[in-house]
Fold this protein.
Amino acid sequence: MENKKTKWLIYTVLVGLIPILSRIFVWSVTESGVVSLIMASDFIAFGLILHISNINEIEHLADDEKSWKTVQNGVSITFIAFYSVLFALIMISEGVPSFIDIKAIKNCAVGLAVISFLISFSVFHRISKIAANEEIA
């Protein structure tokens, strides 16, 4: 049961955190003001990785979980759409900085990433329980 969660933590969460952790490391060793500590794009990448992982893992479940799979895939696709809109807004802000409140985008990206982490944790918790039940049977 814990094997699935451990793999999720290492292969999904840790890999997804690479942009955020890299930025923190670079920020800590550079002069003040050279690198921003928090950028929305890093959290967008993290959220996308979590939801793509959810979709991929859910596809391998048996059909007796069909309704739950459909809901979870729908949730992940919805979040991927939200992240895509945030990313598009970041690109627009590069051309027209006054058009977009980049701080609001950053707050939205961080908030969505936290929610995505909780959703992904719950998905992998359930998948771990299903896998443990299959091993017992």
In short: The longest helix spans residues 102-136.
